[in-house]
Amino acid sequence: MRQQFIVPLIIALSSCSTPEKKAEAPAGPAKPAGPVFEITAPLGLPPVPIPADNPPTVDTIQLGRRLFYDSRLSKDGTVACSSCHDPKSGFQDIRPNSVGVGGKSGDRNAPTVWNSAYSPVQFWDGRSPSLEEQAGGPIENPIEMAHKADDLVKNLEADTSYKAEFDKAFGPGPITFQKIKMSIASFERTVLSGASPFDKWKYGKDARSMKPEAIRGFEVFSNAKKGNCAVCHTVEKEYALFADGKFHNLGVGVDSKGELKDLGRFNVTKNEADKGAFKTPTLRNIATTAPYMHDGSLKTLREVVDFYVGGGNSNPHRDKEMRSLEHLSKQERADLITFMESLTGEMPNNLGPSAEGGR
């Protein structure tokens, strides 16, 4: 019998550094044990995509939650997933460039985990096809956690409490890197953001949930002749992800000579047209997840709007949809910010570390 795992309604992944290929430690097949729990999406979101080989269970979710907050996943025991994806900061990093072991700094901002379950690919450049593969990337990245998969597995095997939790979640057997990644991914699929004032207004038909200026801001946002923001930050009839899952060059990160400092998606595809293109981030909880853009270069929503008003930075690969919004009035720009602030949902009480040290 399928049971329901109800996720409380809450406020809205990627590496903090550029890609580096790492060989993954061999791992045998793994399958979660126990009954499957259905993750119910909050108002404004579609059903959560679930991979057939990693259905969520209460035990894999709880194990993933513990792993997410455990700094032992890093080589020197100083960095956890939550170090760069802090729930107190909207499950993202308030630093422009995230910092890993030994104080090493990456060159990208770690974005929010909210609603990452809906993204068809992970990381700013889309190099990982799933949350499972994404979960393993930072652990082995030398700038982030710098831990070898085999060494991490040995460390966790030596902890009797972890061994018991893995056996409960997957059945008796050795801990593997695959199981670690599967558990973290299952937890991350519960980090959902919906039921914001916007959702209650548009999908709940509650006319009083949105301020008049926010409603005006949505008109600016969605009107192709005004902001035209919805061309990338999509809004559907029955739900809104506020992200198209595609990659766009906005001219972010162009130096004084007009050269791109980070080639983004091009590093994965080697397609000339992908130079400087990065995945569209969700706008859910955008008011709580500063700084903005892949390099964390914009500190406030006002700076973001001003960036778009200026049409971004010119470069040979700038997206054709990127155009100046100078035609927007001062009031329309203010309304647009108020609309984005209406996308903030509620924070649940079951996603942070427990009182027992992350367990």
Blueprint (SSEs and pairs):
Elements: E1 3-6, E2 37-40, H1 58-68, H2 81-84, H3 131-140, H4 149-157, H5 160-170, H6 177-188, H7 197-202, H8 212-222, E3 247-248, H9 266-269, E4 278-279, H10 301-309, H11 330-341
Parallel strand pairs: 1-2
Antiparallel strand pairs: 3-4
Describe the 3D structure.
This protein is mainly alpha-helical and 359 residues long. It has two domains: 3-188, Cytochrome Bc1 Complex, Chain D, domain 2; 197-341, Cytochrome c-like domain (Cytochrome Bc1 Complex, Chain D, domain 2, Orthogonal Bundle), CATH 1.10.760.10. The chain contains eleven helices and four strands. The protein has helices at 58-68, 81-84, 131-140, 149-157, 160-170, 177-188, 197-202, 212-222, 266-269, 301-309, 330-341; strands at 3-6, 37-40, 247-248, 278-279. The longest helix has 12 residues, at 177-188. The protein starts with a strand and ends in an 18-residue tail after the last helix. Residues 1-15, 21-27 and 355-359 have low confidence and may be disordered.
The CATH superfamily of the largest domain appears as Cytochrome c-like domain
Specify the overall morphology: globular
E-strand count: 4
Q: CATH class of the largest domain, anyone?
A: Mainly Alpha
How much of the residues is beta strand, in percent? Answer: under 5%
Structural class: mainly alpha
Strand order of the largest sheet: 1-2
The radius of gyration computed from the alpha-carbon positions, rounded to a whole number of angstroms, is 20 Å
Fraction in helix = 25-40%
| Element-by-element helix/strand order | EEHHHHHHHHEHEHH
Sequence stretches where pLDDT stays below 50 over 5 or more residues: 1-15, 21-27, 355-359
